[in-house]
Design a protein that fits this description.
disordered N terminus; alpha/beta; globular; eight-stranded mixed sheet
């Protein structure tokens, strides 16, 4: 028998060969479970595992059912795994990849959040998987061989192929039909891929032709409640939790963080209290408990999807302990910025962001009596945020101290047409070049000024070009010298405060100008968390209880300032059929004060607020003399001889006149007064 190929090359086949291939199509796939295959064949590489060697499902017994549902003998088509960190979710998917290549070959797609992450996963996880396991090495040719079908993002094997791609690539997601679909860390996927829709739906369309034979596995640590993809998929499933018997009373239960108990300040004594008999379970006892555990559904599945939820409290002994969890929780209580990470990565639950703005009246009532335009004693460096309007420039000067505490030093409005050079010259003279008095008696400059370039863009660029610019170094962004100025542009993405740096279009001039892309959602959500912090009482402060990390203090500004700084709120809207968090402004308020604070925060990040060491803080304190040590060079005033924060000769007499209200301006009808 002769077959003609597309290139007109004749290939001889005997009848028995054709018959054998035809009949093999009717042979059912073997009844072989993924967990059994893993225990027999899987080897963990030292490149990606803390415990290299033979895989043992008994080490993570909660993964057995999850893997077995991925086996071809199971009728389940969609499996969702919402989890904490360090429980083995990704390795579960890698075991499935090895099983497919060896036992049930077919077209398979593995989707990472980005193409770059897909390449990294291929090199660090998939290549060792294929090279270290003999039964897989036989089926996938080495990458070095010509025309082997083995590239970084594509692995061809007998009977099928594995394609790895990123959720940010629409071309990759629609490149091929796929019987098997492994989607890892789906909460990190972009909301929309090149205008073609949700990446999960795009990927799942690739499996439609396989109907009842397809397998789809979605794995992720959740992010924000209401917009988390893995939460959405889990809630449509039968919502299974891993129940285990108490060592004392045999009551079956699943681990809840609220049942962990420990003496104050002694996380090494953390125990888990049985919800039935209150028996104190030690961390090492969970090994025997999990060996007897079972998954139990708690809801009816909407579309037949099976869903699993697992927190890091189940992490095997030696990986992540209950003590580790309580230490992280104690740190998150002190540092509110860490709480989201704790809820997501330890509890494996979506974090519920506070979408409402703080009450402006509450902020107004707890104003401080420090003098406006003078930096308070604990303020150790200055930044400024500048918002540009058609007829004015608004600017807030903010002092920053240890534990990310901040003090609003002054709020200035410079009236004038921002298309005129003299308006910008006033910003330079009245704010940037000014030496700001410190409560210690010294003076200090603004270190970094961030100017919004969303309006009057070319005028902003011209102003920024006249001053030293911030740079992006090996350790992140940094200010090169005092009175650094940076042009910024707000973005809706919420992956980091400082997203990236781009080159500006400056009309063909040769000298480059950097524009810093700043995440408005990240900065605003952080600020609102800080503004909602509970403060110690006056008695607690006198007894040495410090202000919480991130506390924001303000002088006696007028009401308008606080209305502006709380003028927006975060709401969840349906965008192109999917939930998305967006920031909305109260139509009855201005929001320039909020924008200025956000820009000043970005400037503080560039200077190093988020990574500053204790040594750096001490150097700043010594320079100002606030720790009673000899100041370093560069201080403009000597230390007060009387030991007070301010020399007596500089102390102003008390007056019954009200302090200057909120902002300086030449207008007589200033609404802030």
């Amino acid at each position: 028998m002769t077959l003609e190929t597309e290139n007109s090359i004749s290939i001889e086949y005997d009848a028995s060969f054709v018959q054998r291939i035809f009949l093999n199509g009717f042979i059912p796939e073997p009844h072989y479970l993924v967990s059994d295959w893993s225990d027999k064949h899987r080897l963990l590489s030292g490149k990606s595992s803390a415990e290299p060697g033979q895989w043992k499902t008994a080490r993570t017994p909660y993964l057995k059912e999850v893997m077995d549902e991925l086996s071809t003998s199971s009728p389940t088509q969609r499996i969702v795994f919402m989890k904490g960190a360090q429980v083995g979710g990704t390795e579960c998917g890698n075991n499935w990849i090895g099983y497919v290549i060896h036992i049930a070959p077919g077209p398979m797609m593995a989707v990472s959040p980005t193409v770059e992450l897909a390449k990294r996963s291929s090199k660090q996880r998939i290549d060792p998987l294929l090279q270290d396991i003999p039964v897989l090495a036989e089926r996938v040719k080495p990458q070095r061989e010509r025309d082997s079908g083995n590239t970084i993002l594509s692995k061809e094997f007998d009977g099928g192929f594995l394609v790895m791609t990123g959720a940010n690539s629409a071309a990759g997601l629609r490149s091929m039909p796929a019987r098997y679909l492994f989607m890892d860390e789906v909460d990190a996927y972009p909301g929309d891929v090149n205008g073609e829709g949700d990446p999960i739906l795009l990927a799942e369309r690739r499996s439609a032709t396989f109907r009842n034979r397809r397998k789809i596995f979605l794995v992720s640590t959740p992010t924000v409640k209401g917009i988390s993809r893995i939460q959405r998929e889990f809630e449509k499933s039968d919502q299974r939790y891993f129940h285990m018997p108490c060592p004392k009373c045999d009551h079956y239960q699943y681990f809840k963080f609220t049942q962990l108990k420990w003496p104050e300040g002694e996380p090494n004594k953390t125990v888990y209290h049985c919800e039935e008999c209150n028996y104190a379970i030690r961390n090492h006892e969970k090994t025997d408990m999990m060996a007897k555990g079972e998954w139990r559904p708690t809801a009816e599945s909407i579309d037949g999807t099976i869903g699993y939820h697992l927190s890091s409290l189940y992490s095997p002994v030696g990986w992540f302990s209950w003590e580790d969890a309580t230490v992280m929780y104690e740190e998150a209580k002190r540092e509110p910025d860490l709480m989201k990470g704790f809820v997501n990565t330890v509890l494996g639950e979506p974090y519920e962001e506070s979408s409402e703005a703080p009450q402006w009246q509450r902020l107004y009532e707890r104003r401080q009596t420090y003098e406006q335009s003078i930096v308070p004693r604990d303020g150790l460096f200055l930044t400024a945020g500048v918002d540009v309007q058609k007829d004015r420039i608004e600017c807030e000067v903010v002092a920053w101290g240890r534990d990310k505490k901040s003090w609003s030093v002054d709020y200035i409005v410079i009236d004038g047409d921002t298309a005129r050079k003299e308006t910008w010259e006033r910003l330079n003279i009245e704010v940037l070049e000014k030496d700001w008095p410190h409560a210690s008696g010294h003076t200090m400059p603004i270190l970094v000024m961030a100017v919004d370039s969303g309006y009057a863009t070319q005028d902003v660029y011209a102003f920024v070009r006249q001053h030293p610019q911030a740079v992006w170094g090996g350790s992140g962004a940094r200010a090169s010298q005092p009175r650094t100025v940076m042009a910024i542009k707000g973005q809706d993405r919420d992956t980091a405060l400082i997203l990236s740096v781009s080159k500006a279009d400056t009309g063909g001039k040769r000298r480059g100008l950097r524009v810093w892309n700043v995440s408005g959602p990240v900065a605003k959500m952080e600020l609102y968390r800080w503004l909602k912090l509970e403060w110690p009482t006056q008695e607690e402060l006198e007894n040495g209880i410090p202000m919480p990390t991130g506390a924001c203090l303000f002088p006696e500004y007028g009401e308008e300032y606080f209305k502006q700084v709380t003028a927006e709120r975060c709401v969840t809207k349906i965008v192109r059929g999917f939930p998305k968090q967006v920031w909305e402004k109260d139509p009855t308020r201005n929001n320039e004060a909020l924008d200025c604070r956000v820009y000043a925060r970005a400037a503080a990040s560039v200077y190093g607020l988020d990574r500053m060491s204790d040594y750096k803080w001490r150097r700043l304190e010594e320079a100002l003399g606030v720790n009673k040590k000899k100041p370093t060079r560069g201080v403009e005033l000597p230390l007060p001889e009387n030991g007070e924060d301010k020399p007596k000769s500089e102390t102003k007499p008390k007056t019954n006149k009200p302090r200057f209200q909120q902002r300086k301006t030449v207008k007589a009808d200033d609404p802030y007064l």
